[in-house]
Amino acid sequence: LRHFLTLEGLGRPLLENIMDRAESFSSVTEQTVKKVPLLRGKTVVNLFFENSTRTRTTFELAAKRLSADVLNINIATSATAKGESLLDTVRNLEAMHVDMFVVRHAASGAPHFIARHVAPHISVINAGDGRHAHPTQGMLDVFTIRKLKGGFAGLKVAIVGDVLHSRVARSEIQALNLLGVQEIRVIGPRTLLPAAVETLGVKVFHTLEQGLEDVDVVMMLRLQTERMSGAFIPSVHDYFARFGLTGKRLERAKPDAIVMHPGPVNRGIEIDPEVADGPRSVILQQVTHGIAIRMAVMSMAMSPDGGDKTA
Ligand code: CP
């Protein structure tokens, strides 16, 4: 594991290895131990060309808890605004002898492009590219499920909403398929589901009432209007009326079903605030687990043997 760009094509043992490693880092994230020295002397660059609250800050915290130095590049005040290209930006940072780029970009494939051009000692971690992939989000989501449900066998998981524009949904579906859940459902209007979505290994539903029946996990998605570019944008009122997760609709799921959301949450659009803040919600636990998962991925990428005992 040198770069971490997508979950596609990875094996189940590697995903289990990342989660096991994250488990061992959980005590660090809970601050019983402040730091571990695994990345001492390394420099991690957070290169976020799109906005972020959770991903950027948990990567920063994770890097600091691994004892790395962290550079947060403010794109708005960087030379990007003067026309500097992505590759020139990367090459200039590389000349400062950095060791890792954590990249978020609106263009699908941007982290892969950077990975193809950096020096062999540098790792690139994808922190979300376009509508393509958000692999550490996918990993922290399945890590949360494993912690709360004890495993994946026999689980029915529903992913609800704007799957079409969601890099999170793609990475979640890849991870859940690799880990062998019983059933993955996607629930949403036809206009917000990818063409031939069934080929991803999911069952398709167009009503919450049918799709939530007997599920163990409900993963909500927001409407990603920033990626809709003139296409169909549903009215917020109509959308909540048809696809908003309410307490009443959640009664269709199993009594111990958990409610997840990668954030940011748009209350009253895809989810009722009472559900988002209710006893089934594990949304903030997902955020906490993001630190341990990102520590695991970064430490494996910087490990001389790739940290992959399964390779
Ligand atoms: N889940 C997620 O990617 O959130 P941010 O956009 O705040 O990083």
UniProtKB/TrEMBL annotation:
Keywords, in A-Z order: Pyrimidine biosynthesis, Transferase
Gene3D superfamilies: Aspartate/ornithine carbamoyltransferase (3.40.50.1370)
GO annotation (BP), single: 'de novo' pyrimidine nucleobase biosynthetic process
PROSITE patterns: CARBAMOYLTRANSFERASE
Binding site for L-aspartate: 82, 167, 222
Domain Aspartate/ornithine carbamoyltransferase Asp/Orn-binding positions: 154-300
Top class in the EC scheme: transferase
Catalysed reactions, as listed in the record: carbamoyl phosphate + L-aspartate = N-carbamoyl-L-aspartate + phosphate + H(+)
UniProt: carbamoyl phosphate binding residues: 54-55, 104, 134, 137, 263-264
Enzyme Commission numbers on file: 2.1.3.2
Matching InterPro entries: Asp/Orn_carbamoyltranf_P-bd (IPR006132), Asp/Orn_carbamoylTrfase (IPR006130), Asp/Orn_carbamoylTrfase_sf (IPR036901), Asp_carbamoyltransf (IPR002082), Asp_carbamoyltransf_Asp/Orn-bd (IPR006131)
GO MF terms held by the record: amino acid binding; aspartate carbamoyltransferase activity
Alphabetical list of HAMAP family matching this protein: Asp_carb_tr (MF_00001)
Family in the record: Belongs to the aspartate/ornithine carbamoyltransferase superfamily. ATCase family.
Quaternary data: Heterododecamer (2C3:3R2) of six catalytic PyrB chains organized as two trimers (C3), and six regulatory PyrI chains organized as three dimers (R2).
Protein's name according to its UniProt entry: Aspartate carbamoyltransferase
Lineage, top ranks: Bacteria, Pseudomonadati, Pseudomonadota, Gammaproteobacteria, Methylococcales
